[in-house]
Amino acid sequence: MSGMKLTALTAALATAALTATAQAQAPAQPAAPPPYATTKVEGTDNVYIFRYGGHQSMFVVTKAGVIATDPIGERRPAAKAYIEEIQKITKAPIKYVIYSHGHYDHIAGGQPFKDLGATFVAHRNAKKRIAELKPADVVVPDQVVDTDKTITLGGTVLELHYVGRNHSDSTLVMRLPKEKIIYTVDWIPLQAVQFRGLADTYVPDIEQGLKKVIAMDWDKLIPGHPGPGGRQTGTKDDARNALAYLQDLSAAAKKAVDEGKSYADAQKDIKLPKYESWGGYGPFLPMNVERYYDFWNRGI
Ligand SMILES: [Zn+2]
User: Fold this and answer.
1) What is the CA(168)–ligand 1 centre distance, in A?
2) Average pLDDT of 188-193?
3) Which H helix or E strand runs over 292?
């Protein structure tokens, strides 16, 4: 081997060694999750979660077609990715898109599903709100649910239940009785306090609704957002904890009102250390307090 070749070989080996070292050191920072991903729900043959950014929705694959839920496509091309992900699993037609509730961050962007002939289903109050406000890029539902509706497709049964007003006046609880899974969005967060000032949320109805959901027969909850560490499903304990949080929050706000505290003092003084590790605790607890202070102070 000539001197030139040897030098080149040495250089190449040195580069390879450096690359290997760099790769070994790379995982110091965890990699950012990919923009979207599809996961099969453990213990099922045909129930999937499609996640795009921090939103997720459920879809169910049957021989006769697919039941999809929220397009989660507000100002982003999520529905295109969602459809491509479904079509990697099955070429069966997407028969339904069911809206979890009326909020645009979950239901916008469904037009690509409509173009494929899907039937859109939502609670009657969601359709009413969409018809009034005419948000850009939200497909108007074809069918509505008042209290209960059952969709049967290719041997799969999906129940749609309305348990009253909670995080909105149009929230459905979708239940797969055979699989014992529910999909319901934004009001039973996984280890997180409620979002900001609980806009559009009905107090105390949300607590009554939680009791109804806890009494239903299911093992696994698919929420609209993953929890800490990217956890995509919850259990009844998560629902019980979400209810306990609201009850503790409510009791603390009532006490502050009874003691004649101002809004500002109640927001400053109320701490719920049991929930300190939950998502949103720092920024949102004072806003959650304000909502419950209003309830106890003014009955609103
Ligand atoms: Zn919402």
Assistant:
1) 7
2) 98
3) helix 281-298
260 CA from centroid of ligand 1 (Å) = 32
Output the CA angle 278-230-60, nearest 5 degrees: 120
pLDDT by residue (tens digit) across 160-180? Answer: 999 999 999 999 999 999 999
Ligand 1 centroid to Cα of residue 173, in Å, is 13
Cβ atoms of 156 and 122 within 8 Å: the answer is no
CA of 227 to the centre of ligand 1 (A): 16
**Per-residue buried b or exposed e for 273-287, using 16+ beta carbons within 10 Å of the residue's own CB:** eebeebbbbeebbbb
Residue 148 backbone dihedrals phi, psi, to 5 degrees: -140, 150
Q: Does residue 150 contact residue 158 with C-beta atoms inside 8 Å?
A: yes
Instruction: Report how far ligand 1's centroid is from the alpha carbon of 15 (Å).
Output: 52
Report residues near ion ligand 1: CB below 5 Å.
103, 186
Q: Give me ligand 1 centre to Cα 254, in Å.
A: 26
> Ligand 1 centre from 272 Cα, in Å?
24
103 Cα–ligand 1 center, Å: 5
| Sheet of strand 47-52: strand arrangement | 36-40, 47-52, 55-62, 65-69, 94-98, 119-123, 143-145
- 9, amino acid identity: L
Query: How high is the pLDDT of residue 2?
Result: 42
Give 78-119 pLDDT, tens digit per residue: 999 999 999 999 999 999 999 999 999 999 999 999 999 999
Q: Is 143 exposed, middle or buried, given 0-12, 13-18 or 19+ CB atoms closer than 10 A? A: middle
Burial class from Cβ neighbours inside 10 Å (0-12, 13-18, 19+) for residue 112 reads buried
Contact between 107 and 138 (Cβ < 8 Å): yes
What is the Cα–Cα distance from 98 to 78, expressed in whole angstroms?
16
Distance 185 CA to ligand 1 centre (A): 7
